[in-house]
Structure of HPr-rel-A system PqqD family peptide chaperone:
Amino acid sequence: MSQLYRATASEGLIQHPLDSMTLIFQKSSGITHMVADPIPAILEVMAEEALTADDIAQRLSLSYDLEDSTHVADIVMARLAELHLLGLVEQV
């Protein structure tokens, strides 16, 4: 069974795009994170639902021209692990 992840509630984050980067201020910790693509897209498709890396990859493929969904799911899984360490997503 694949691990489910849920993004931090959107009201707990303030996002500000800056050229190719996005600043994400996390109200609960007072920390501002500087992230690059595909992090903002991953957080956007997650909304506040609990999803697997495969679910997220499928949703991303609806909005972006992605070639190999298996490879995309691996990339998403790596980014989810990073986001989990930053406290921007949680395992459920």
